[in-house]
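If you are new to this repository, start here. Below is one unmodified record pulled from the training split, so you can see the exact layout before writing a loader.
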Amino acid sequence: MTGFNIFHTSIVIRKRTDYELIDLTWHVLRKHIKPILFYMTCLALPFFLANFLLLFPLYCFLFAKELYEPGPLLLYWLVAVELLWFESRFASSLVGAWLGLWLFHDEEQDGPVPTSAVLETWFNSLTQLVWYTLLLRLYYYNYAFLPEIIMLEKTPYTSKGKIKLTTRRRARYFHRGITGTNAFVSFETALLSILSHITGLAVLYGAGSLLTGGAAFWFPCFMLFALPLFLWFSCMVNSVFLFLCYLNLRISREGWDLDIALHAEHERLLNKADFIPLQSTGLDRKSSSSIDDVGASDGDSWLPVPSLTSNLFSPGPDATHTEGPKTHAATVPDTASQETTP
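And here is the target side for that same chain:
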């Protein structure tokens, strides 16, 4: 494991548009479907069985007489979707833990991401995940990236010693000013859900009706099993998409891509003039957020740390929100021109 190191990642660190994020979501799913499906099934299966026990009485009540009444069909679908929405962020938390470790993991050198590391990351955050994503799900419904903050940034529930950045405070600062982004992410996740399961449901329902010779046998199987299964598949797609949205926000706010560009320029200058001391550039690894083993209390924490770019983009807990790109654009050229002079 390489730890938190933006110079060794499984995907290119750069800001992406929303359509590029959707395309990258399907690319990650296509390439890593086995581990994502495995970790999704681990938590989704218990919820699937619990939902079956809840939906079966409702199905018997709504479809006792007619199978294709639009009112009961819509009501049943809404109940199934609401149950999934309530459970989805916790049920997909193992997928988020795997994605966070996979991003900074070199599979060619170290092999697949160890299951023990994924479980350790998840178990260390289990208490907060249950509290924020299940018990207080309705209260924190607008905090789309709360599981990623809990597991990857490893913020504590309460203030401990010098660490004053709690999970609740970090989530509030992280989601501040992105109400429109949250709305657009919610719309895109809903769109991904619809596209990912409607086509499959139509094909599955048609095939089942043809094979069984009618809907009398296939309809209950479809409503009780096929529909929830495709809803959970859409939840898996959304979990990958939300992780990439979280990563994209971190890149744009903290200037990870600019850190990499400055590091590349630093390497280029060293190749041209080997006599330039490393410390004279101000870009040594000790002053950069790319250093391994950073964070509040753990070597794999994703918490923002002081660096050339994070100082400009990441306001402290008591600081007011400023527009990072404008400040960075005005600051970096002067700093670079002064510090890189031999």
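Two things worth knowing about this chain: The first helix runs from residue 18 to 31. Residues 279 and 339 are 9 Å apart (CA to CA).
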